[in-house]
Amino acid sequence: MSRSYLDALSGQPLHQQAQAAFGAFSGRAWADPAQPHHEGKMAAQILQASRESVANLLHIAPSGVSFQPNAHVARLAVEGVLGASSRTTTGRTAITTAVERADVLDALRTAIGPDSVLQMAVDSTGAVSPRALVAALSQASTRRQAVVVVQAGNGEVGTLQPLGEIARTVCDMNVPLLTDATGALGLTPIEPGWSVLFAEASTWAGPPGVAVLAIADPEAWTGPLPADGSDVLSAAAASAALDSVVRAQPTLSAHLRELTARIREHVPLLVEDVDLVGNAANRLPHVVTFSLLYADGEQLASELDRLGVAVGSGSACASRAGLPSHVLAAIGALTHGNVRVSLPIDATVESVDHFLDVLPEAARIVRAQAGAP
Length: 373
Known about the structure:
With about 375 residues, this protein is of the alpha/beta class. Helix content is about 40%, strand content about 15%.
């Protein structure tokens, strides 16, 4: 049986350029780049070239780029902007949205306490209004030591945030902006104006477990700039893949948008009682999420897997904890029966049609098991 992999946000096959980087540098990037010997200097040169490549794409200084482990990058970014690791955070306020990733929200609460984290409401698509941000920043108690934390796009429902307007607003008020660009960087333009940005390399088919941390405004960062926490070889592979994806972005993004539009058009025609969530137009090019009434999302994903299609279901962290997705709850969508399709960069019409072909049967089986009418 042929298989179609449509769960890129959980990871995807390595980009060809990442594979090429592993092959090209495996014999030269193994030493500690901090050491003064020849081998260390060779690794340091590779690491510096990787930084410069990412910096050029983001239009920032190479000294502001580092490569970090996925597991720690959100906490590191939050602590760097808030100053949580080097000085008191008393009086600091983080203004964010109700749909940020759980690890970002957890890092904020840990750094300054839950009472100092203000979550702005979002509309039914998951987008925040710039006017809500202005209102939050206009409060003297929050503006005094405020940090704004807003993602570029939501990996669960696909909606893009108005990052350009948000950046202009915070700039006018001299407030730093921390942006989680996971799911967006490389696949869609990131408007300038952010102070600090981070993104996981799996977004652009880079090595798993690696993330980019970028500091555009050193004044927004408290303490010394972070040292690289990833190995040199993975950094080189991540930067090579990102460079290739950014160069192909117009064509790649258009292709992925055509495929997700195909899914959004056909799913309601193939299955009854389905609710497509997220913004229909202003969205990540590769993400589609929908909810099926009378169906369990995990069971539906399992049935699709049996039929040869890999998809995601709801929020990964929420699913593991057995909890409803906070993102879906925030936009007022069904928190059960959710399927998230996220297309890898090599997705094809055939893989999408495979999904559309088997979805009705999978939905029928799962609904019958649940005793749906």
